[in-house]
Amino acid sequence: MRKLRLFSSMLLLALGASITALAQTKEQAAEISSDVPELQAFHTIIYPLWHNAYPAKDITTIKSFVPQIKANMGKMNNAKLPGILRDKENLWRSELIKFNAVAESYYKACSENNDEAILLAVEKLHSAYEAMNRVVKPFVEEMDKYHQTLYVIYHKMYPEKKYNEIAGLMNTLISQADAITKYPEDKLARRLKAKTPEYYTISKDLYDETIALKNALKRKNAKKKDAAVEKLHATYQKLASLFE
Predict the structure, then answer these.
(1) Which of residues 136 and 75 earns the better pLDDT score?
(2) What is the pTM of this model?
(3) How is 157-219 classified by DSSP, letter by letter?
């Protein structure tokens, strides 16, 4: 009986550890994801509004979306950004103020039964929604992947000086940095226009500094390791700022 109790206790402990580890994994995954559920949910309104009701100039249907938009705007205003988007908080809030103002114009146009103003309001609502998406979703997917790895390094490992763990991620980070430098210019030019050459200059710097960090981590000088991490992080922010 005592052996059975001991086995049961060990089984419960193992199960508890597994559940804790699973919870941590899900929490970490959510923290490095740039998804904002409230913004994703808004797409269920924007899609039929923009792709169906607006082209058909279906004013009745457009007006019928008002309650749903109001409800979703309330959720948007209370949304919390995941950890990886902490640097985007001010820009998110700035665009959210504009989004609210556009939504208010939409409600007003619908209440006044002004068809021309209603259609214009739909255009502005769609543009404001796209602007919110641009805040949280990098135009270059390769940058998003790099940022997810960098986030773990900069906000999880680096503060605790876990240099060996950082070193274990460097080959992945280098591969991701290389992919950033190779993003097709024709696609990039549609978004960045005159700033396109600057993207390639900074992305090359980012790649070189990623290599430099890997080399710094092989040495014993902690100050140089820290300086390499900080320089790398600052360069990524500089690259990301091109899209703001």
Answers:
(1) 75
(2) 0.68
(3) IGGGT-HHHHHTTHHHHHHHHHHHHTS-HHHHHHHHGGGHHHHHHHHHHHHHHHHHHHHHTTS
